[in-house]
Amino acid sequence: MAKQTRSIQKKTLNAPDEVRTFDRGNVELATVGTVTFGRARFEPGWKWSESVKPIVKTEYCEAPHVQYHVSGRLRIRIRMTDGSEEEFGPGDVGITPPGHDAWVVGDEPVVVIDISGMKQYAKPAAKKAVKKLAKRKTNKKKR
C-alpha cells in the first residue's frame, strides 16, 4: 500500500521540474508525490506520428492519458488503432488508452493538462532497447 502524505504539497507548472521539447510542441512536467502533471502545448500542424514518434520509436502513442483540454476554440482529434476518432475542445475531459495518434485541428495551438500519461511522454527510447532491436534485425539478416 502506498504511503500517504500528511502534508500539503504544491508545485507549479509555471516553474516545471522538466520541459521536453519536440517539433511543434513541448510538455512541462511537475511531480507532486507520486503523480506527474503535464501541460502539453501543440502548435498548428503538430501531429504525434510526425513530432513524437521519431523520438519514442513506437508505432502509436503508448501513453494512457487522463486529460483536461484548456483554451478557447482549440481542438485535438484522437485516432485509435481500431479506427475510432474523437475530437476534443476547451473544457472537455477525456481518457485515451494507449495505441493512438493525435493531431491539432485548425490554426490555434492546443493546451492540455494530463495527470496520467506524461511521465514518459516524448522521452527518447532507451538506447539499450534500440540497440537490442537493431541487433535482432542484423542477426535475422545473417540467417
Q: What secondary-structure arrangement, pairings included, does this model have?
A:
Blueprint: E1 18-22, E2 25-32, E3 35-42, H1 48-51, H2 53-56, E4 65-70, E5 75-80, E6 85-88, E7 93-96, E8 100-105, E9 110-114, H3 127-142
Antiparallel strand pairs: 1-2, 2-3, 3-9, 4-7, 4-9, 5-6, 5-8
How does this model look, in words?
The chain has 143 residues and is an alpha+beta fold. 17% of the residues lie in helices and 36% in strands. The chain has one domain: Jelly Rolls (Sandwich). It has helices at residues 48-51, 53-56, 127-142, and strands at 18-22, 25-32, 35-42, 65-70, 75-80, 85-88, 93-96, 100-105, 110-114. The strands form two sheets. It has a six-stranded antiparallel sheet with strand order 1-2-3-9-4-7, with no helix packed on it. A hairpin with a 2-residue loop joins strand 1 (18-22) and strand 2 (25-32). The model has no long low-confidence stretch (mean pLDDT 84).
